[in-house]
Amino acid sequence: MSFDVLQEKIIAKKNPTVAGLDAKPEYVPEHIRKVSYEKYGQTLLGAADAIWEFNKGLIDALYDVVPAVKPQAAYYERLGWAGMALMEKTIRYAHEKGLYVIADIKRGDIGSTAEAYSDAWLGATKVGDVLCEGFNADCVTLNGYMGSDSVNPFLKTCKERDKSVFVLVKTSNPGSGELQNVPAGADDTVYGLMAELIEKWGAGTEGKYGYTMAGAVAGATHPDELKQIRARMPHTFLLVPGYGAQGGTAEDVQYAFQANGHGAIVNSSRGIMCAWQKTGKDGLDYQQAARNAAIAMRDDIARFTTIA
Amino acid sequence: MSFDVLQEKIIAKKNPTVAGLDAKPEYVPEHIRKVSYEKYGQTLLGAADAIWEFNKGLIDALYDVVPAVKPQAAYYERLGWAGMALMEKTIRYAHEKGLYVIADIKRGDIGSTAEAYSDAWLGATKVGDVLCEGFNADCVTLNGYMGSDSVNPFLKTCKERDKSVFVLVKTSNPGSGELQNVPAGADDTVYGLMAELIEKWGAGTEGKYGYTMAGAVAGATHPDELKQIRARMPHTFLLVPGYGAQGGTAEDVQYAFQANGHGAIVNSSRGIMCAWQKTGKDGLDYQQAARNAAIAMRDDIARFTTIA
């Protein structure tokens, strides 16, 4: 139920981190790209083929270290339908390796459309008499600006198929405060109100670790606000972007966890995927480099956070 | 520049409406589905094939009546990669028929990711030395909750390739007020602040009709707020969902326009796509029914709004 599956994987691996899988051609070592471009030309198909090899290699190198992966939809969409086929294959392969998959899609739309997004990413679509699964992730990120009817269709699917969502509260980017930090309601902020709404939307769906199916995104780059969000959202599992490349540290992200080290997962994308760019071996060691970076991140976070 | 292309098409057709293309299998008449399911089975490929035939037929029936179409990404994503291939083909076909294409994607993410989304939907992606176009719409919808750095990458592409965006302000769904209508800032609301931000983000990109590249979404289901938004956003082109099936009327949507009838476009999806369901001919007349509905909508809106 709810985030139990993810929390259990985190406990088993003593590692509350998720490896981002940003499908950027420029992150793929030259020797892999070369083969794909020879096969398909410098086309979206060629790029998707190269990234497929890279994603598989990364998953093979990481699956016994990290509990989860997070493909970022934007990079897959950038490769058109070939990228979306790559997204499907990547999610399937990650599942074969026992990983929890968070599709970072940040969707949000009116009820009937939210239902379609929910079918696409967590559920299934009826074609004639047949139920056809689409991307079949375990969890997605959502934008709650449109209100409860943009989130509820996802929560319905979560209940039916044991999945979860993360709704944006306070994001890690420099401009996040322009709307999110404006004073709002009674002595609150826009992101504070969003935090309250998410706790309300999720109420009643708590799993055995006490977290609802409606998680929240709270960036590592704002540690004071992270602390505050953790306190205000006791039943909410947090996804924490912004560690590493964006500037968040292990000291910062400790505030996302509860006293027992539960209730949060920290993302790193470039830090793991692009670790090979710092070893001077032209990416021939990209798997070892990614694995080392993931282990270093796990150990870095463990300096401040102990998982019971 | 900016929304000039769209405003010109609206003036030429004396029709400020956009036909939604929601790729739902259940909207497609039985005789079309039957052929596709025989060819591909009751699969996502089969559904995508049926909707491709339907979309083509709708575009053929509508292209000299409406200035624009609006495919809703959720319904295409629901069909996995086959749906995304369908989205690409649909946009290409609509362009062949001279239509302006608004991809309704409601995306929003941190800067580097927003860049990827912008490449995917409005721009192009570099693969090796080659620039590859993805979905290549004319305009997309965005969610600005994350702030200026989630919108600016799109505006950069808009300037380079003469495209535009619509950012959510006040949406048409029942739950829209939960966050959007909360009092915020100095005597304002969350959606009011978003309106101010959008006017600011777009400033300096006005085209010959006076509208910036940063349009806004404002629902027909809240006419008082629509009136207020129109007044507060004098340089902003508005996309108005909620007419018809969701309850908005021609009387309501008149407030989205400026005195010369410029500056807004009203969407109808089900009302046009599903018009055949009300004629009792099992969808054999779906093209004529869609065309009649689009003409009726144009004439209905003209009762209150005259385009100079």
Automatic annotation (TrEMBL), chains A, B:
Recorded catalytic activity of this chain's protein: orotidine 5'-phosphate + H(+) = UMP + CO2
Residues annotated as the enzyme's active site: K106 (proton donor)
SMART domains reported in the protein's UniProt record: OMPdecase
Any one GO molecular-function label of the UniProt entry: endonuclease activity
Gene3D superfamilies associated with the record: Aldolase class I
Record pathway: Pyrimidine metabolism; UMP biosynthesis via de novo pathway; UMP from orotate: step 2/2
Gene (UniProt): pyrF
Name of this protein: Orotidine 5'-phosphate decarboxylase
InterPro entries attached to this UniProt entry: Aldolase_TIM, OMPdecase_AS, OMPdecase_type-2, OMPdeCOase_dom, RibuloseP-bd_barrel
Similarity section: Belongs to the OMP decarboxylase family. Type 2 subfamily.
Keywords: Decarboxylase, Endonuclease, Hydrolase, Lyase, Nuclease, Pyrimidine biosynthesis
Domain of life per record: Bacteria
